[in-house]
Amino acid sequence: MNFRLVDLSAEEIAQQLSVVEPLTDSVRGLIDAVIRTEVDDDELNAAREQIDAIVARLRTKQKPGSFGVQFTRELSGLSWGNAAVGARNGIAPPMRIVHHEDGRATCDVELGAAYEGPGGLVHGGVSAMLIDQLLGEAASVGNGLPCFTGTLTVKYLRPTPLGPLSMSAETVRREGRKIFVRGEICTADGPTVTAEAIMVSPKELPSRDQIMKLRAELAAQDGQG
Ligand SMILES: CCCCCCCCCCCCCCCC(=O)SCCNC(=O)CCNC(=O)[C@H](O)C(C)(C)COP(=O)(O)OP(=O)(O)OC[C@H]1O[C@@H](n2cnc3c(N)ncnc32)[C@H](O)[C@@H]1OP(=O)(O)O
């Protein structure tokens, strides 16, 4: 697994996010505009040339592979490439604000044209991805144990319209490294999707000792600098 500790303070992270999140929102705007524009072919070709120039500009300095998951010294995860919540990922729905309280995770999200399956409705795979993320966060944060999805069961009760949605997830019970969670996606009229999952904290995650060793190495670097 691509796991790395980074030496960033909360202020430095906030500073980076203040630049990155508006850029990602602009990319989301681009995706939405490409889907819905009705300009003529010449305009489309001109737009493509401009987009290609921007891509070339960004590629002048680029990470190899994926973004990976970086952790701060305080063990906050910076999963900025994540498909569901990545702050740098324009494909990820704008699912940023996840509230955790008493083992329950909640989140509001507004899904536009980029998340369509049947006409005017949310794609079932998108619903599954979003609720999977929230279930995973409820299990991981609620129990202080980073988890992977082992089994996910999704029930589509009625079509989910594009637009504003609210989601919630909570732990039902824990058996060793297995955490049983359930959650739902709702419109103002009630749930459209319910889901259950068995989240498993993998035995091969970096151990607390390994994490502490990495933190000590960062502290030693501070001492030298
Ligand atoms: C510091 C704290 C805060 C951290 C704060 C971080 C926040 C972070 C938020 C993360 C939010 C992520 C939300 C998205 C989550 C993904 O999208 S994860 C990606 C999708 N999932 C995967 O790729 C998982 C692939 N599978 C695997 O890696 C491994 O099979 C697993 C699931 C980790 C299990 O491997 P393992 O640790 O070797 O498990 P193993 O020892 O064989 O079995 C342990 C127990 O789990 C059961 N089990 C194993 N596999 C499964 C399964 N697939 N289904 C059901 N049960 C299973 C076994 O039966 C066994 O049960 P018992 O015998 O103990 O009763």
UniProtKB/TrEMBL annotation:
Xref: PANTHER family: ACYL-COENZYME A THIOESTERASE THEM4
Lineage start: Bacteria, Bacillati, Actinomycetota, Actinomycetes, Mycobacteriales
Gene Ontology CC entries for this record: cytoplasm; membrane
UniProt family annotation: Belongs to the THEM4/THEM5 thioesterase family.
Compartments in which it is found: Cell projection, Ruffle membrane; Cytoplasm; Membrane
Chief location bin: membrane
Protein name as catalogued: Acyl-coenzyme A thioesterase THEM4
Organism annotation: Gordonia neofelifaecis NRRL B-59395
Coiled-coil residues: none
One record GO biological process: fatty acid metabolic process
Keywords tagged on the record: Apoptosis, Cell membrane, Cell projection, Cytoplasm, Fatty acid metabolism, Hydrolase, Lipid metabolism, Membrane, Transit peptide
Keyword Ribosomal protein: no
InterPro entries in the cross-refs: HotDog_dom_sf (IPR029069), THEM4/THEM5_acyl-CoA_thioest (IPR052365), Thioestr_dom (IPR006683)
Membrane-related topology note: Peripheral membrane protein
